[in-house]
Target: G domain-containing protein
Amino acid sequence: MDHVIVVGDPGSGKSTTLNALCGTAPDTGTPFRSGLSVLSGLTTALQTITVDGVRYSDTPGLDDAEHKEQAAAAIADAVRLGGSVRLLFVMTMEAGRIRGTNLATIRIVLDALAEAEIAVDGRYSVVLNKMSVGEMAAWGDPRTGAAVLRSQLGRTAAVDQLVYVPRVDALVDAADAQFPQATRDRLVEAVDTMATMTVLEGTDIVVRVDEVTRLTAHYERALAEQRRRAHEAEEERWDREERQRAALDAARRRAESDHASAAGLERDIAMQARDLVVARQWNAGMGAVIAVAAWLVFKVPIFL
Ligand SMILES: Nc1nc2c(ncn2[C@@H]2O[C@H](COP(=O)(O)OP(=O)(O)OP(=O)(O)O)[C@@H](O)[C@H]2O)c(=O)[nH]1
Ligand SMILES: [Mg+2]
Model:
């Protein structure tokens, strides 16, 4: 049986995503409760429904101080149901940054599956929910944003699909609200083509919730280090561009001054040529005067 399991941090939009996927019309209500939950996650135990032969499982957020153990048990319960599983992690960003807690959750769940000998590489997907316009632009670029994200996720196992869901203002603080139809259609289409992992019914996994804090801190450090390196690379690139610009300016100035001295030289040559013409004319004039004077004095023609 096809089985969609949704996992992610509290409040990331797991239940809203599932409501979009299970295809119930907006006016018939939402099978999965969603909404604002201040102290801990709204979904606190496994909730599973079957629509048109597909099972959908909603799980509580793993990084939840109150319900960590329950969340781990719910994820294990969902896996125990087995099937042709499409595993979907729903995550959000923090001011354009990936959060360590998301990577920790993904790592813990994938490790648990891998330990039970379930092939996970390239078989799980990530929904990036509540993306701002800027986040969509930065992370949506397949050559930069998506590649960085894939490399970060790939440290645990290669990710199949990355689905970006734009932030919907109408959903802020809303209870049991639905994504717009276009988003619902896109999510359904994406999930239809997602890779699956085969999980035998009754498979037991051990979700190590006790690792959440350590792994979150580990990923926070790794992400901060990666940001620092990216920042340094950016500054280096900027310095290099600045140096190239300065060298170009200097070359341009040199060329201009060479051009100016070439023009000066041309001017000098032109003046010398003019002086030569004047001298020639003067010489010719003087010659004529001498010839006339010689004729008058000596009555002999002198040809100069
Ligand atoms: N602005 C905005 N809000 C969203 C979006 N998706 C979900 N929400 C809101 O975020 C809140 C939490 O959504 P849920 O779907 O309940 O999140 P969850 O991951 O199931 O939360 P828990 O069950 O508490 O772990 C709700 O008020 C939703 O209306 C989105 O794309 N944009
Ligand atoms: Mg929920």
Residues 212-298 form the longest helix (87 residues). Residues 14-15, 34, 42-43, 58 surround magnesium ion (ligand 2) (CB under 6 Å).
